[in-house]
Amino acid sequence: MAAHLSYGRVNLNVLREAVRRELREFLDKCAGSKAIVWDEYLTGPFGLIAQYSLLKEHEVEKMFTLKGSRLPAADVKNIIFFVRPRLELMDIIAENVLSEDRRGPTRDFHILFVPRRSLLCEQRLKDLGVLGSFIHREEYSLDLIPFDGDLLSMESECAFKECYLEGDQTSLYHAAKGLMTLQALYGTIPQIFGKGECARQVANMMIRMKREFTGSQNSIFPVFDNLLLLDRNVDLLTPLATQLTYEGLIDEIYGIQNSYVKLPPEKFAPKKQGDGAKDLPTEAKKLQLNSAEELYAEIRDKNFNAVGSVLSKKAKIISAAFEERHNAKTVGEIKQFVSQLPHMQAARGSLANHTSIAELIKDVTTSEDFFDKLTVEQEFMSGIDTDKVNNYIEDCIAQKHSLIKVLRLVCLQSVCNSGLKQKVLDYYKREILQTYGYEHILTLHNLEKAGLLKPQTGGRNNYPTIRKTLRLWMDDVNEQNPTDISYVYSGYAPLSVRLAQLLSRPGWRSIEEVLRILPGPHFEERQPLPTGLQKKRQPGENRVTLVFFLGGVTFAEIAALRFLSQLEDGGCSEET
Amino acid sequence: MNRTKGDEEEYWNSSKFKAFTFDDEDDELSQLKESKRAVNSLRDFVDDDDDDDLERVSWTGEPVGSRTRPGSFQSLSDALSDTPAKSYAPELGRPKGEYRDYSNDWSPSDTVRRLRKGKVCSLERFRSLQDKLQLLEEAVSMHDGNVITAVLIFLKRTLSKEILFRELEVRQIALRHLIHFLKEIGDQKLLLDLFRFLDRTEELALSHYREHLNIQDPDKRKEFLKTCIGLPFSAEDSAHIQDHYTLLERQIIIEANDRHLESAGQTEIFRKHPRKASILNMPLVTTLFYSCFYHYTEAEGTFSSPINLKKTFKIPDKQYVLTALAARAKLRAWNDVDALFTTKNWLGYTKKRAPIGFHRVVEILHKNNAPVQILQEYVNLVEDVDTKLNLATKFKCHDVVIDTYRDLKDRQQLLAYRSKVDKGSAEEEKIDALLSSSQIRWKN
């Protein structure tokens, strides 16, 4: 059991167990010793569901990464491919199957598509002449993966592109299916709110799926009161800005994948006494980041500027705790001290790690360039000079800074201006193409299609209205003891979270005009519950809302939602 | 395996591919299979359409006599079972899941539902356009990608291109799905036809242009880019595409020439600074840098001269100066740097000017480890006093700092700065001299 999943208002271990059970069942179907050939991309998400120990229990003796040519030798009865439904992977699998050494003992092949099987993939296998070689061909609908006590993710890397660039509804279908699974385990969600085209589609799919489910009524007492579906493109601004929470900055600088981060090893090398320095570790230091770690849970969502004081306070407490050993006189007291040692040592290790990480982050945040970049971002977000070519951006292009950095800034300007003036846009485009290559005509076209970088139509800038009505820019932000969600970006309140906040109190009727400016329909649906299950709220008990971002979410937004739920003392779960 | 587009095409358009069959473990019709089979095989002999519908399946489940394309793998079992004797005994020993269902009973919505559950379903009976469209509508309302794909594959095979396009034009979801599907299987030709039909001219142009990324050979890529010129891009993009072609054309010439020069070993610049990479497919600014580095003094007439590049691609002064500066600074050619900023006015006096702020010049010089005297000269040219002081302090251009504080008449700062210079140095003396001078009216 993953302890950290049980801490929230909703016990996500239930989901995790259900998902693990399905995996176990499939493994048992392929009776006998087995080896798993992994699509590398899946190892991360699977790691959150099952460790190797579970696989071993079901006779998994070896694990390989999916690669071309021949499979490594392994004395197992079954070979199981765990793959995403991608055509190029099918080619590799076919190669593996066809180059199987027939002189050796025969091995049975199976394939598990995650999260769905695909017609095209199976057709490809058939074309390559290997489809019949597989005995069990199944899908494992790993739709929603629990990341933490209040966080689930589909880890669908292409979702944004598919939904907003190509109009392909596959990931929406998965989202709906995932939500149906959740409802099967946690009860029907009585109210669904949404904003955006995709949100509308998902809600429609859910309603239709419910109608078609001919099974008996869901008798589980509902855990969630509300579901809020939000299209990512309702708020394109937030993901473009640099996150300023502790976890957000770790993600910005080093990238967090499946709750793991890889850090430069030098800072984490253990201090060795004596001369003859041991070899410094060359492999990156990998750390897991979730709420199971007490200290991390405390600082992850804080604005980075407030982290230092927490760490130094912690250092004092831990020091004092270790000093207690001098006060332990009796056997009983000594025994007690010793029993607490492991916990104290873990706390000290945790503190050491996060102090190192904070130092690494500080190196970046105190640099001149970071300051300049942040200044420009905040100018844009507060509506200053969004209609002309920006000098800092020009300099970045001239110095050939990373293209992503440049694009984020240019798109941020565009979003804060409801599109750029044609002349400004053309100017940026030309500089970018000349500096980074003409093939980026395609990149820029995609950005325009997604609404991130486009010309201003209708000559009207709607952003100031949105900004003022929703109070997106707060001048008097308190980073140490925040009173408003704008602390996560040191002044800018994430639009998406503001919408969630206003939905709960006083409701969306108060912002009808702004909602109409934002893209996509907004709606409300009710799902009837059998009479015995209707929830009566106890006084003081707050509603549990599931917020579902269709197309990705930032750590800063998650932090903001957690902050909201503490304010109102209502539980929130977030998903991407 | 090399799956060329042509092969792909051929296969999709002419093979005996049918509606795809998923494994079916508990087909409740299996009890009726005997009688159904008998009835259905009769039906097939009667049908005019698509003779040879039946797919022959070998003992191992592999299709017998399946089309082998050049270069494709062939499983051993295929080869073994590829004998005429076996080809007419398909049903016996066939895996349960491969049974074809030729029943007439399934309506479009039932069919779609069965497809979604992964059950065997032949779509052949949907003959009329009406039926096919209804099937498509049902599939779309189900939202299941696999089902929609299965139906689209069927329609693609059984409808003419024009009818298919015409019908999908008014069905947005199915249309998007088809586009996604064509991209996934790489059917570029049909995709472009579709865009042409829909009059999505810009997308057509971009989709065609995108293909250049798959062409590695520079000459072939250049020829391909030529075909992109004149496509219906936006006006701005058209100019960029033209530039892309022209640039690659030039790069090919420069690359060939320089490689020759380098191997001949006679040219100093190439000997001293051997090239680390080819210039092919590099962005314009990188090419300009390269040109300023290796071909700076060449006259306008050659393809590799910086001036030529500037004129051909209309590179603005700002960009040009920055790039040339970076290149010459890297080579420590301070005279060239000087010349970049020196202009003669009408009286014949020289003056230093820059289309970029001098603070940028200083930064680039510093990055290239320019000697302090050079740095100092340019720091002095920075107009904004604060910036000037900032940079001078940062880069230890003591004289500039001293002179500036003197001009500002700021005694406190000058005194503070004294501790930053070396003891007994000329700068210290200078500061002392100034501090004790009675001619300066210090403000503090």
From TrEMBL, chain A:
Cellular component (GO) terms are: autophagosome; clathrin-coated vesicle; early endosome; late endosome membrane; lysosomal membrane
Keywords of the record, alphabetical order, are: Cytoplasmic vesicle, Endosome, Lysosome, Membrane, Protein transport, Transport
Instruction: List where in the cell it is found.
Output: Cytoplasmic vesicle, Autophagosome; Cytoplasmic vesicle, Clathrin-coated vesicle; Early endosome; Late endosome membrane
The answer to whether keyword Transport applies is yes
Predominant location category = cytoplasm
* Membrane topology term: Peripheral membrane protein
Protein family membership: Belongs to the STXBP/unc-18/SEC1 family.
**Function field:** Plays a role in vesicle-mediated protein trafficking to lysosomal compartments including the endocytic membrane transport and autophagic pathways. Believed to act as a core component of the putative HOPS and CORVET endosomal tethering complexes which are proposed to be involved in the Rab5-to-Rab7 endosome conversion probably implicating MON1A/B, and via binding SNAREs and SNARE complexes to mediate tethering and docking events during SNARE-mediated membrane fusion.
Report the protein name in the record.
Vacuolar protein sorting-associated protein 33A
User: What organism is the protein native to?
Assistant: Callithrix jacchus (White-tufted-ear marmoset)
Automatic annotation (TrEMBL), chain B:
Principal location: cytoplasm
Instruction: Report the GO terms under cellular component.
Output: early endosome; late endosome
Polar residues: compositionally biased ranges: 69-80
Residue span, Vps16 C-terminal domain: 128-228
Which InterPro entries does the protein's record reference? Spe-39, Vps16_C
**Region named Disordered:** 41-100
Q: Does the keyword Disulfide bond apply?
A: no
GO terms under biological process: intracellular protein transport; vacuolar transport
Keyword set for this entry? Answer: Cytoplasmic vesicle, Endosome
Compartments, record wording: Cytoplasmic vesicle; Early endosome; Late endosome
Can you say what this protein is called? Spermatogenesis-defective protein 39 homolog
Q: Which gene encodes it?
A: VIPAS39
